[in-house]
Design brief:
By secondary structure, the protein is an alpha/beta fold. It has helices at 16-23, 47-52, 68-78, 84-93, 109-121, 139-156, 167-173; strands at residues 5-9, 35-36, 39-40, 54-57, 127-131, 159-164. The strands form two sheets. The protein has a four-stranded parallel beta sheet, with helices on both faces. A two-stranded antiparallel ribbon has the order 2-3. The chain starts with a strand and ends with a helix.
Length: 176
């Protein structure tokens, strides 16, 4: 369902990350089908078009080389979109505008999470896959980020599939 946040809770080793990797078309399942928005994702004629509508945030944020700005503009360049205003919007939205010219590799862990979120949202994905992205954040910071993220997701109408082993995170973010 479009614009909803779905959460899957389970212990380590339960297959949560594998499930997301299959949804992102990084892995093939042994059997079965998965339909997203009424289409079997394994029979799509244009898998690249589907991937371009999808963003994935991993449990460990990874900055690309260069500045914070370059990290956020990169997904737009990959898609041939020249909307630099969207980058500035994401810098402001995730409160990292003051880091625009900073080297991404020098960011704190919390700042890297904000960078990963800005990079994921800059393309306005229809589907966002979250693989325990808040695992190592301190509780106070995490609480504020989850609240902000929930508001952004609903404002943009993004469908989210979020996997976690933390029931409080799940309850804070999930619609279902």
């Amino acid at each position: 369902e479009k614009g909803r946040i779905f959460t899957i809770i389970g212990p380590n080793g339960a297959g949560k990350s594998t499930f997301l990797n299959i949804l992102a078309l990084f892995q093939k399942p042994d059997s079965g089908t998965i339909e997203i928005w009424g289409e079997n994702i394994f029979k799509l004629k244009n898998k690249l078009a589907f991937r371009r509508k999808t963003s994935f945030i991993f449990s460990q944020p990874y900055p690309f080389g260069g500045t914070v700005y370059n990290n956020i503009v990169l997904p737009l360049r990959w898609r041939g979109i020249g909307d630099t205003e969207a980058v500035d919007d994401m810098l402001d939205l995730f409160r990292i505008g003051h880091l625009k010219e900073a080297k991404a590799a020098t960011l704190s862990y919390g700042e890297m999470h904000r960078l990963a979120l800005a990079r994921a949202f800059v393309t306005r994905p229809q589907l966002l896959l979250l693989d325990e992205p808040f695992l190592s954040l301190d509780p106070h910071y995490k609480e504020g980020l989850l609240s902000q993220l929930r508001n952004i997701i609903h404002a943009q109408g993004t469908t989210v599939i979020f996997v976690t082993q933390d029931q409080l995170e799940a309850l804070s973010l999930a619609d279902d």
